[in-house]
Specification:
Elements (H helix, E strand, L loop, with lengths): L11 H30 L2 H8 L4 H8 L3 H13 L4 E2 L11 E2 L2 H7 L11 H10 L1 H10 L9 H27 L2 H7 L5 E5 L5 H9 L4 E6 L2 H14 L5 E5 L11 E7 L8 H11 E12 L11 H19 L13 H10 L4 E4 L7 E7 L1
Helix pairs in contact: 1-6, 3-4, 6-8, 8-9, 8-10
Length: 369
């Protein structure tokens, strides 16, 4: 039996302690994310923010939950500094809890660019498919997107909604690709949003370009159903159509002045086939805009927080979902620029440009037929 030699100048005990601390802190963060999911699903943050400082009994009564559970959740949230408490020395039944404006931006307002409450839904979703995920690792198969359940569907949409509503048609298109903005501002243009999910990107495009006809397509029927509801509530259902459809359907050929596929290419089993179909969907003046993950140009031994997040998402969801249908390119979340270039070339695009749009999580590409 051989043993690994450790350099004498390395303090192994300190390194062990550091790793233990990091994993313990990460475990706490995961459990707190689940506690946030409880607060979001039960409407506790919103009620606290709207009602102002409230006692345990008042929160329980307003939310329709058991008072003992309300007390434990409120104390845990205050301990985690996720909500405020007026005076911790007061008796449990007298203390008042509240949500301030900073906390509301992160935990209450679904349109806030700081909104991170959906994080808990991701954890719930990953845990729910763990047996299937382990089997996929053993067999080389995958886990279908639908198997991840409503939590994944809703959390993904909620995570992207603020950026789509606040930035997509504004900073991203207007400033990042001004000629496309000018084109889409004309009456009678047609826009395709492929892989639209719950439709927040499609709705944002319809709101920004009232003279356009916008079609959102997705293979996930429950997503399309929710997208239609969201469009009705947003008041754009008269000029937005949502369809359960595949981008490769020939009926879309030559129809659109602009085609968007936002944070979806890396999830596709056959990205080249889909990109080729989107190229064919372009009218003579059409352009394909891809938004996908902003990852490093190459693998590094130690990643920054964004790279760590992307790899974790790939291990737990994006790669297994992409592998669920075979044959699969097996892209995963960490889709680097060179990979996008290769996919675009194989799909027949004549050029690809990385757009000068800055965002911590997303990178934008313009593909010309």
């Amino acid at each position: 039996m051989t043993t690994r030699e450790t350099p004498v100048d390395v303090d192994v005990e300190a390194e062990v302690g550091s790793l233990v601390e990091r994993l313990f802190t990460g475990g706490i963060a995961a459990m707190e994310a689940l506690s946030i999911h409880i607060g979001t699903e039960l409407g506790l943050y919103a009620r606290l923010y709207d009602a102002g400082p409230s006692t345990v009994a008042e929160v329980a009564r307003a939310a329709g939950i058991d008072e003992r559970y309300a007390r434990e959740w409120l104390e845990q949230q205050a301990t985690a500094e996720l909500i405020d408490v007026d005076d911790a020395t007061h008796p449990a039944g007298v203390r008042r809890y509240s949500v301030n404006d900073v906390q509301a931006a992160v935990l209450v307002d679904p349109t806030s660019l700081a909104y991170l409450a959906p994080a808990g839904g991701f954890v719930v979703s990953f845990a729910s498919v763990m047996p299937k995920l382990l089997d996929a690792y053993r067999t080389g198969g995958g886990v279908a997107y639908g198997d991840y359940g409503a939590e994944m569907r809703e959390s993904q949409a909620a995570f992207n909604r603020p950026a789509f509503q606040s930035l997509l048609a504004g900073d991203w298109i207007t400033n990042g690709i001004p000629d496309v903005h000018k084109r889409l501002s004309k009456s009678g243009v047609r826009i395709l949003d492929a892989g639209c999910g719950l439709g927040w990107s499609t709705i944002a495009l319809a709101q920004a370009y009232p003279g356009a006809t916008v079609i959102g397509i997705d293979l996930d029927a429950p997503s399309i159903e929710r997208a239609r509801q969201n469009a009705t509530e947003a008041g754009v259902d008269d000029r937005v159509t949502f369809e359960v459809a595949d981008a490769v359907d020939p009926k879309y050929a030559g129809s659109f002045n602009a085609v968007f596929i936002l944070e979806a290419v890396h999830d596709l089993s056959r990205p080249v086939e889909v990109l080729r179909a989107l190229r064919n969907a372009c009218a003579e003046d059409g352009t394909v805009i891809v938004m996908d993950e902003r990852v490093a140009d190459s693998f590094g031994a130690i990643g920054d927080p964004v790279e760590r997040f992307m790899y974790a998402a790939s291990v737990l969801h994006c790669l297994p979902a992409g592998m669920a249908e075979q044959p699969s390119a097996g892209t995963g979340t960490v889709m680097r620029v060179d990979t996008v270039r290769r996919y675009a070339a194989d799909a027949g695009f004549t050029s690809l440009a990385v757009l000068p749009i800055e965002h911590d999580f997303f990178r934008f590409y313009r593909l010309e037929p």
